[in-house]
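Let's sit down with a protein and look at its sequence and fold side by side. Once you have written the record down, we can walk along the chain together.
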Amino acid sequence: MAETILEFRGINLLHLGLYFEELGGVWTGESDMPKKYRGGSWSGEILSEKEIAFTPNFKVNSVMVRFRAETEEELAALIKRYRYKTTRVGG
């Protein structure tokens, strides 16, 4: 089993869960942390959320997410698809 933990900043916690569902995952229904999602041969967990203050007025959320898959190749593909959904383009 391959796994990795990534941090996402400035993205709503509910959106991060929705992205797992859009990739075919099913929420296990547990309301407290960690929020667990299962899909085919992979799983994802939203582990924690906290607020980071860069200045007294500039604060963002930081969410830790664990990804697990049967193989390193499946894990890399899952993370690639998930990161695509979290991409934010400024303008």
The mean pLDDT is 95. The CA atoms of residues 26 and 62 lie 23 Å apart. Residues 72-86 form the longest helix (15 residues).
